[in-house]
Amino acid sequence: MKAAVLKNDMQIVFEEVPTPDPGPGHVLIRVSWASVCGTDLHIFMGEFKNRVAYPRILGHEFSGVIESVGPGVKHLQPGDRVTADPIVWCNECPACLNGQNNVCRNLKLLGIEYDGGFAQYTVALADKVFKVPDSITMRDAALAELYSLGVHSVRKAMIEPGDRVVILGAGRLGLAVLEVLKQSAVSWVCAVDVLDSRLEIATKMGADLTINAASEDPVETVLSRTDGLGVDRVIECVGTYVEIEGRQGPVQQAVQLARSGGRIVVMGLGSQFTPVFWKDAVFKELQIVGSRVTLGDFPRAIQLMDMGRFHPDLLVSEVFELENLGEAFHLLEDKPDEILKVMVKIE
């Protein structure tokens, strides 16, 4: 089969490699579409050497058609249109034994520790593979993992009817969270970013208020809109942030934005150290929780996609053929502010 193989930092080679065989409990998927994630870019830049051994086929967001099934697989058959949850857990550590498999101590992912979807074929665990309804295009099915992240974070936020929510960061992840929130019983959602282009997309997706943090203090604006009370939930989707003079970091802002008794969900995987004035958090008795990957969220995301509740066309910036994957990574590296989702057409 043909695959785009990461040979070294920033070096992808399109070449012939052996087609994998599905072992017991696995399926072989003929990949149709894949999506380039921000994590893929970090791996491409050489920032995941503690987890990625070269050569490696990246790609953990993909869709395709079942080519064959391994021994013991009963619920899937050749010809099924599918997408896959890329996470692989150990089922042995305390987290797994407590049902918190998404924070498995030994968590691994397709496209990181194992070969992923930037190839004509890939192998996945059958119990992590989900059928895709005919109403969802194969291109959009490759975005199911992104939307599942949004579903998971909203569930972690424990949204209640009438909640007011601020999303910090309107990139790929923040916009997916926004899409899911608009299907819940929230009364009001505000999206914060430093790029007007992304805030325009957030408005198209239904954000009730957008704030450009480069020109406006989100804390002052939100507090003025809520009579000084703050919001019920804050979901942080920024990660590594642009430092702006006179502005606090996203997690610090979240503490100021949340009302007393509110809840903050932190999703961003930033590299910066973020000091927080914990006295405010204690006085408000805030609940601050992390949200990592997914845990049983794929079916919910696929159901919402099946009902046409999301706007994937607003996320997709560029489409590349598999043999040009290296160009896609360089585009993301050179123009990060202009690109949201890069899709890779494989079949």
What does this molecule look like?
The protein is of the alpha/beta class and 347 residues long. It folds into two domains: 2-143 and 315-345, Alpha-Beta Complex (Quinone Oxidoreductase, Chain A, domain 1), CATH 3.90.180; 148-290, NAD(P)-binding Rossmann-like Domain (Rossmann fold, 3-Layer(aba) Sandwich). The chain is built from eleven helices and 17 strands. The strands form four sheets. Strands 3, 4, 5, 8, 9, 16 and 17 form a seven-stranded mixed beta sheet that branches. Strands 12-11-10-13-14-15 form a six-stranded parallel beta sheet, with helices on both faces.
How are the SSEs placed, and which strands pair?
Layout: E1 2-8, E2 11-16, E3 26-36, H1 38-44, E4 61-69, E5 81-84, E6 87-88, H2 94-97, E7 108-109, E8 121-125, E9 129-131, H3 138-141, H4 144-157, E10 164-168, H5 172-181, E11 188-193, H6 196-204, E12 209-212, H7 218-225, E13 231-236, H8 250-257, E14 258-266, H9 278-284, E15 287-290, H10 298-306, E16 316-321, H11 325-334, E17 341-345
Parallel strand pairs: 10-11, 10-13, 11-12, 13-14, 14-15, 16-17
Antiparallel strand pairs: 1-2, 3-4, 3-8, 3-17, 4-5, 5-9, 6-7
Helix pairs in contact: 4-5, 4-10, 7-8
